[in-house]
């Protein structure tokens, strides 16, 4: 029996790209009958060390999350104008579904597994306690795959400026 390329890793959220996060978040909140959650913005390059297609980028995203039932987190993302996977996908495809997200222990192994299946690493970065990458699987699967992993204690110490 064949196994999913990332093992038994559950999907932790789905990402939806939007042009206007306030408007879309209000629509989701109205539909779900919940308050509008706080909207935040990802860190600048100085903290995120984000790269897009191998080059450093100031591309950021404003985001908010809606928990729908016990098993589904919907992440709304409004990209800034700087180059990023989010901006490129929004410009190319318009608003809507963008990615599934997985959490793994070993990011490098997950990247290699995705690349073995033909996915291309297009963006990477970090936040206070974790790292992420986006793998482009649009040609075959019609989506991106975000893979997230915790940062090691050494990485957190090295990057805690």
TrEMBL record:
<dbReference type="Pfam" id="PF13669">
    <property type="entry name" value="Glyoxalase_4"/>
</dbReference>
<keyword id="KW-0479">Metal-binding</keyword>
<dbReference type="InterPro" id="IPR051785">
    <property type="entry name" value="MMCE/EMCE_epimerase"/>
</dbReference>
<dbReference type="GO" id="GO:0046872">
    <property type="term" value="F:metal ion binding"/>
</dbReference>
<feature type="domain" description="VOC">
    <location>
        <begin position="10"/>
        <end position="150"/>
    </location>
</feature>
<protein>
    <submittedName>
        <fullName>VOC family protein</fullName>
    </submittedName>
</protein>
<dbReference type="InterPro" id="IPR029068">
    <property type="entry name" value="Glyas_Bleomycin-R_OHBP_Dase"/>
</dbReference>
<dbReference type="InterPro" id="IPR037523">
    <property type="entry name" value="VOC_core"/>
</dbReference>
<dbReference type="GO" id="GO:0046491">
    <property type="term" value="P:L-methylmalonyl-CoA metabolic process"/>
</dbReference>
<dbReference type="GO" id="GO:0004493">
    <property type="term" value="F:methylmalonyl-CoA epimerase activity"/>
</dbReference>
